Amino acid sequence: MKTRRERLLSAMSEAEKAGGGIHTTRELAFMIGERHTPAFTKFLAECVKSGILRRVSSGLFESTLTPPSADKAISQVINKLRSGVINYISLESELSHTGHISQIPMGHVTVMTKGRSGTFETPYGTIEFIHTKKPLSSIGPHLYFDPGMSMYRADTTLAIADLKACNRNTQMLESI
After folding, report:
1. Which one-letter DSSP state was computed for residue 101?
2. Total Cβ atoms within 10 A of residue 96
3. Which NCBIfam families match (predicted)?
4. Domain 4-68: which CATH class?
5. Which residues, at least 6 apart from 71, have a Cβ–Cβ distance to it below 8 Å?
6. Which of 55, 62, 70, 130 would you call most buried, defined as having the most Cβ atoms within 10 angstroms of its Cβ?
């Protein structure tokens, strides 16, 4: 019979093979057939302390033995932190990606969200969520799906409009 830790590591390894490496506390409990209780949360804290898990952000974990690939991890963290709402890469991150600004935001990603604003420090960099009040009908036509990140991105028109709406620095724009 496998120990609780062995079941957890095995489940996380299988999940990583299937494309998921970042998990919430509730997902981890479900993956090993347990209830999400304070005792389970304490178990996860012990796993972090012993080095078999790494806390990526509050309530988000990854296996240190089978971590996700770094290029996919940031989008998984973004989607877990603001699940159930529309999120898309925009502002400086998108404009740098498309070459409209020459600065490359190192270790920082800007994400527009229909959820709450907030900034999260993670091992994969800082994630800055900025709430948008724009209706989905005006956002949708200006989004495209990036399969490499498994996330939506703003087109240039929307990214510049978001930059202006958020009163961010427009002086860095190379061309409009």
Report:
1. B
2. 19
3. TAA_AbiEi
4. mainly alpha
5. 148, 149
6. 62
